[in-house]
Structure prediction request, 315 residues.
Amino acid sequence: MERPQIRSDGLQLNEHRQFQERFWKFERVAWIAFAVVTVSALLGLTGGGGPLATVSIESADALISYPRVARWETADELQIALQPRAGATERRVMLAPEFAKSFQLEDVQPRPSKSTVSDLGQILVFDNPDTQGGQITMHIRAQSVGRRSFTITIDGGMPNALTTYVLP
Amino acid sequence: METVIRGASIYFILLVILRLSGRRTVAQMTPFDLVLLLVVSETTQQALLGDDFSITNAVVLMIVLFGIDIGLSYFKQWAPGAARYMDGAPTVLISDGKVDFRAFHRARVSLDDVLTAARQNQGLERLDQIKYAVLEADGAVSIIPIA
Prediction:
């Protein structure tokens, strides 16, 4: 066990002043990092809402809004605004298998009239009698951490590639 | 497994944040610090338990936290250098009657803090009655009066 030295002023203690000077500098750098994390959180880069928390992609079939950054085991929303499609009395939304591996689908509003599964993924079928498009909201919950990519295909068109970063 | 990872992660994250925020927030508790402590404890409770409120989870978590604490105490004995990073070191604020203003500024301690400690612990009235003032690693201010 280290016995503290007696200093020139008579105190017996190890002040480790050089270490403290280094640590005080490090502390101030850490406070800047605290500020950066706070600003990032306000912007939505740590999930949980904010101007950059969601991202939207638009295709001929739909406008899809989904979380850019999600949090593990936390509820989030994925919204699909379907574009009007003449003559289509039902709309099909296909979620790729990667989606089911990374997210739990807790609820869908409105409820699909039919749900089927294939090796290409889960297909949700929605009645759309007036062919005027509509809004679908999926309540999802991330089940694994890291970069998660999946596709959503509307009415058998081009797959929309989505990437969400899930924080622990 | 998740309980152990949650417990260990929160323990070390809280340790790092508390240490980097400076020692004032630990020992010299103002009403603001009390609010901070209450909010932090409530926040960490959610992160520690998740949605598992079973007695098993609580018991495992307590054992993990005490285990880490015991392990770290041995580690600090074995590696005093690492102990300085974890616990900090004392800072001499007044040495032989001379005030080290740089130490006061860097450690975010005011002369009022030292005078308060001098009044409370030694019954001293003035700064010139203080021979040594040391900001201890636990955040308390020790006062040694001029004999």
User: Anything to note?
Assistant: The first strand of chain B starts at residue 91 and ends at 95.
